[in-house]
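Title: Prediction job returns without error message
Component: structure pipeline
Severity: low
Priority: P3
Assignee: unassigned

Description:
Job completed but the reporter wants confirmation the result is attached to the right record. Sequence as submitted:
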Amino acid sequence: MSASVFAYPTEAVYGLGCDPLDQTAVYQILKLKQRPVEKGLILVAADINALAKFADVLNPQWFDRLQQAWSDTQRAVTWVVPKTQACPDWISGQHNSVAVRVSHHPLVKQLAQTMPDSVMVSTSANPASLEPARSAAEVKHYFGEALYCVEGELGGLAQPSEIWDAQTFTRIR
């Protein structure tokens, strides 16, 4: 397994991450998860401006709504917004939109900032149909020793991020 794919703690569960522009790494994650590329993946960053390359997060129609949700440190909220031309299809899947989140988790923020565009893939660390890993030991159980795992504390939330559609303001998850 490439060192460009790694597991890390998020607000509620362990995630799998990589540089979203590294197509080989993204496909490694999809293979690990047994997830079809058509479904798309979440992108996470430390601030909204980093996400603007990939998603229309600065659109005045929903900017305030996103900012308000992302300023609440007691929640993890992912927004589905129209993607930009820079967002690759292996991230957005079959959609014209992409799921994005600004994280408050210190380690997630730090890891995202090490990526070339200060944005990384964030998808739960589990094969399809299994519960997301909530510890480094569970990550190793699912994926073995070949996957690099950044160990750390989860962010204290009981459930993975809520997912909302920014255009319709409807909850997806």
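Comment from assignee: result matches the submitted record. The two ends are 31 Å apart (CA to CA).
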